[in-house]
Write a structure and sequence with these properties.
Length: 568
């Protein structure tokens, strides 16, 4: 049993330590000491459930769980069955699902990307050298003689005194953009864009959005493995084949005609044709006074697209609370994966997504079972399996914009995305520590395990902006995102880093992310027990944890909570 008072003090100190390590923030709120953190025993969690659900969802017959396919139908039916058997009730009135309107666009017949205006024409093959997609529901996409402009990191951030588009009109042009933030190579976590830690400005989603707002016809991001945090194989697999997007309706946001990526060596050759050097321009782009460079080159390509509108589905189950049933603690995980993708050398083209994220989806089921067996907690527990995470967190964004349970009555929650089978660890990895008072609940649970929280070892990868919790955070709901630890009991950090690197290099977003009968589940089950105790503590608590004072999401939460007498 935990000693609540002592743990609160230790937890607050731990959370302060974490904040200094992973992201710049002003510090913990003084209200931290008032948090109600009840004593919670471990749950009755089933390893067999974890194995069965993970194995089932990653079978070839589920075809990689692509939204809008037969694989989705099988996934939704299976999760509905498992949620009901676990003891949950339908989470959307009398329905287990929430429809998410999407459009699927599949490009085909790609012409080479050709560059003219230099001493000789350059041509690049789709797939190995460049990839491109359109967000527009048009049968044909053509980029014809579009003037090219190098815009550095493609950032327009007035609050940081930064605008890579200042003084240049890119309307109808093709912009070439560097991945990540200008200060990604800076040691430590201080700087205009958080130093080593990627901000949202470093994410490809932002760069395409800003290019569209600036009127660009096309946007090409220069791939570089280290600042992107993944190899070209991930880009090629993720950006080829069917792509799902929101149905924008009659008033869509600005969109380019094409968004894409080019290999770093391709970009180097293109810039050389303009008499420029990629390395020199990349260094110049790190400075606040950088000015975009018109390259004197023109880009051309074309491709056809097949479009279809459809509704995908979030799956929602609820365990109603015993006293405060209108207050909600949420658990999220995405059920989708990439479907069929770039084949492996053996011809296998099904991206099964066993780790990413059949494991997280299985965790929803196992946690639901354990909480139901323990009986209804004070607050309601929501289990949300979201769709289209791989397409840009679309299911999570749709729920956060159209919540079944009011966000100002949602206490907070835990997101689960990809459990690596590394064995037991002395720690857990916290993505985005120091951001909210949920750190105190985490530290209290860790203390009883004799484990510690390690800040994300790769803040430059921008993981905080790459999973479903981010959609809720943008709406002000405090969310924890925790990965397995890397300080393994057997082998320490060197062994943990090796497991993570092997997965990134050989299985992540590829056909070999498959279920393995020989996996060691002991570390996963220890982490799952941690999530159980955090979730149940939140559900038994009377406190409403908030973002720390000065955090980017604090104002949104405060406004949401003050909008009505019943809120927060």
């Amino acid at each position: 049993m935990k000693r609540a008072f002592a743990l609160r003090a230790a937890a607050m100190l731990g959370a302060l330590t974490l904040g200094a390590c992973d992201a710049a923030f002003p510090g913990m709120d003084s209200a931290e000491t008032a948090l109600d953190i009840p004593d919670i025993e471990s749950g009755e969690l089933s390893e067999e459930t974890m194995k069965t659900v993970t194995k089932t969802l990653s079978q070839d017959s589920f075809e990689g769980r692509m939204p809008g396919t037969e694989g989705e139908s099988k996934t939704v039916a299976y999760l509905t069955e498992r949620f009901e058997a676990a003891g949950l009730e339908p989470g959307n009135g009398d329905s287990w699902v929430q429809d998410v309107p999407l459009v699927e666009i599949t490009g085909r017949d790609f012409a080479p990307l050709t560059i003219t205006g230099g001493d000789s024409a350059l041509a690049y093959e789709y797939g190995p050298e460049w990839v491109g997609v359109t967000y527009r529901e048009e049968a044909a996409t053509q980029i014809a003689g579009s003037e090219m402009v190098f815009v550095g990191y493609g950032i327009n951030a007035p609050e940081r005194g930064w605008n890579d588009y200042e003084g240049i009109d890119v309307t109808g042009k093709t912009v070439v953009i560097l991945v990540n933030d200008p200060d990604w190579e800076t040691p430590g976590l201080t700087g205009t864009f958080g130093g080593k830690a990627m901000t949202y400005y470093g994410r490809w989603t932002y760069k395409y959005e800003e290019a569209a707002r600036q009127g660009a016809a096309a946007a090409l991001i220069v791939h570089d493995t280290e600042p992107a945090s993944y190899g070209w194989n991930v880009v090629e697999s993720s950006w080829s084949g069917p792509q799902a997007y929101p149905q924008y309706g009659d008033n869509p946001p600005p969109r380019t005609r094409m968004n894409g990526w080019v290999q770093k060596d391709v970009a180097r050759e293109i810039l050389a044709a303009a008499g420029e050097d990629l390395d020199s321009l990349s260094q110049a782009a790190k400075q606040e006074d950088f000015e975009a460079v018109e390259l004197g080159l023109k880009a051309s390509t074309s491709f056809s697209s097949d479009s279809r509108s459809f509704s995908s589905r979030n799956v929602i189950g609820i365990l109603p609370g015993s006293e405060a049933a209108d207050e909600y603690v949420i658990h999220t995980a995405h059920w989708d994966h990439l479907g069929r993708c770039t084949p492996a050398p053996d011809g296998d083209d099904i991206c099964n997504g066993a780790v990413d994220n059949a494991t997280g989806t299985a965790a929803l089921v196992a946690l639901a079972e354990a909480h139901a067996k323990a009986g209804a907690p004070r607050r309601s527990l929501v289990f949300l399996a979201v769709t289209a995470e791989e397409s840009g967190l679309l299911g999570a964004y749709y729920y956060a914009s159209n919540p079944v349970f009011p966000l100002d009555r949602t206490v907070g929650g835990i997101n689960m995305d990809a459990f690596l089978m590394a064995g037991p660890a002395k720690d857990v990895t916290v993505v985005g520590p120091g951001k909210s008072q949920l750190d105190t609940f985490l530290e209290a649970a860790l203390e009883s395990d004799g484990r510690v929280a390690t800040p994300n070892p790769s803040p430059e990868a921008g993981y905080y902006y790459r999973s479903d919790h981010f959609a809720f955070a943008k709406q002000g709901v405090p969310m924890l995102y925790i990965d397995g630890g890397e300080d393994l009991i057997d082998g320490g950090r060197e062994a943990g880093e090796a497991v993570a690197e092997d997965y990134r290099a050989n299985r992540y977003h590829g056909p070999k992310d498959e279920y393995d009968e020989n996996w060691d589940w002991s570390g996963v089950m220890a982490d799952l027990d941690l999530y159980y105790r955090i979730g149940r503590t939140l559900a038994m608590s009377t406190s409403w944890p908030n973002w720390n004072e000065g955090d980017e999401f604090r104002a949104v939460r405060d406004e949401s909570c003050s909008a009505s007498d019943a809120g927060c």
